């Protein structure tokens, strides 16, 4: 059965979150080096399978393939498709969709030398704790703290032709076309939904959120960058993943 609603969603700090935000009763969603790293709220564990039955659940994440595959989804909630590497790599039933990847590769092929050069220069900084090229698609750097990330970003703010984004202590450099908005446009062309719902929490999600018929954000921080008439802001007394899934199920109607 074709699902009429496409629910495109960020993952980290949207559907799941790190141990820093853990509350009693939260369910472990991810292990990293044997330690509990990611978590779902109890309500998310209950609502995600319902949402997965009623809408086309499509995660769109900056995570690499390996990072995405660490997630332990609630029973009945495993998405059949997921867009990793900021939308550049489509996984279908756990396998790379070659047609999608080939189209993404055409967008980044001419930038491979510039990506490698940027990685070499960034890696030499003392305040960068790790840096890499993710799935051959973009450069990612983790810094010692948020202030270091801002300094690192300032050093390469004009490093054309990449789009640079800072998120906490992380900095990303994306070639043209490797953004969540482009990924959502490509997905909508493939799946042809009647409506698109999106959820996200950071500036990296804004291109995707702008394309939604209804966007969901955790607070008012991103609101100036989005169409207010098509954006819902989470209530202060509700955890964001629960707000997102309640809204999705309300939009989907009776299952």
From TrEMBL:
- Determine the domain of life of the protein's source: Bacteria
SUPFAM superfamilies per record: HAD-like
Coiled-coil intervals: none
UniProt entry tagged with the keyword Hydrolase: yes
Q: Name one GO molecular function term.
A: hydrolase activity
- State the InterPro entries in the record: HAD-like_sf, HAD-SF_hydro_IIB, HAD_sf, TPP-like
Q: Which NCBIfam families does the record cross-reference, listed alphabetically?
A: HAD-SF-IIB (TIGR01484)
Name of this chain's protein: HAD-IIB family hydrolase
Organism equals: Oscillibacter valericigenes
């Amino acid at each position: 059965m074709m699902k009429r609603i496409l629910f495109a969603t960020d993952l980290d700090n949207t559907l799941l979150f790190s141990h820093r935000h853990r509350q009693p009763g939260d369910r472990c969603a991810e292990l990293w080096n044997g330690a509990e790293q990611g978590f779902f709220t109890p309500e998310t564990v209950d609502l995600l399978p319902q949402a997965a039955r009623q809408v086309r659940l499509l995660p769109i994440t900056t995570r690499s393939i390996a990072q995405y595959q660490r997630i332990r989804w609630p029973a009945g909630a495993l998405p059949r498709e997921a867009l990793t590497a900021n939308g550049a790599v489509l996984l279908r039933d756990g396998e790379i969709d070659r047609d999608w990847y080939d189209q993404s590769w055409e967008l980044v092929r001419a930038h491979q030398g510039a990506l490698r050069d940027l990685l070499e220069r960034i890696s030499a900084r003392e305040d960068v704790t790790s840096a890499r090229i993710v799935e051959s698609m973009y450069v990612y750097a983790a810094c010692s703290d948020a202030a270091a990330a801002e300094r690192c970003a300032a050093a390469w703010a004009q490093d054309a032709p990449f789009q640079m984004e800072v998120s906490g202590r992380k900095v990303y450099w994306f070639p043209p076309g490797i953004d969540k908005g482009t990924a959502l446009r490509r997905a909508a062309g493939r799946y042809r939904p009647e409506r698109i719902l999106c959820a996200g929490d950071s500036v990296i999600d804004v291109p995707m959120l702008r394309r939604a018929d209804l966007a969901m954000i955790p607070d008012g921080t991103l609101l100036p960058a989005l169409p207010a008439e098509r954006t819902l802001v989470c209530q202060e007394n509700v955890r964001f993943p629960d707000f997102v899934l309640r809204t999705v199920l309300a939009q989907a109607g009776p299952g």
